[in-house]
Please model this.
Amino acid sequence: MLPFALDSKLDVLDLYELESDGRFQLIRVGALGPVMIGYNYILFATTLAEQLCSFDLEGIRFETAVIWDRTQDIEHSGYQQAHISNHFSFDQINDVNLDGLRFFVMDNRYLFASPSLKLILESEFSNHFNFTDGLSNFGGSP
Model:
């Protein structure tokens, strides 16, 4: 069995983390989603992050995040950045420990969930996430 890749059901905007102050700058104008996944960041709307915390997830902590729309000079503060300690690379997917309720990050960019966490996310948050089995949506799967 493999972890499940997940992404947002909404077409989310790309962000860029500013080194000067840690805010996330919008790359293009548009609607913000409850889940925003990109290179070196995973952001959840604060209400969603609080709900996820109630499940006592392993290897995750949240930190307040601010999204800055430079074009309008507006800050959106209703987000939490997820710091996930479970990382793996493309060639390690078969060796991932799938026990418990865990998120995983592959190559600092892609979010995965253990099978037991996927079941919870499907039942509680089905309107937020798309799921695929392992690397089935990735070219050149091992």
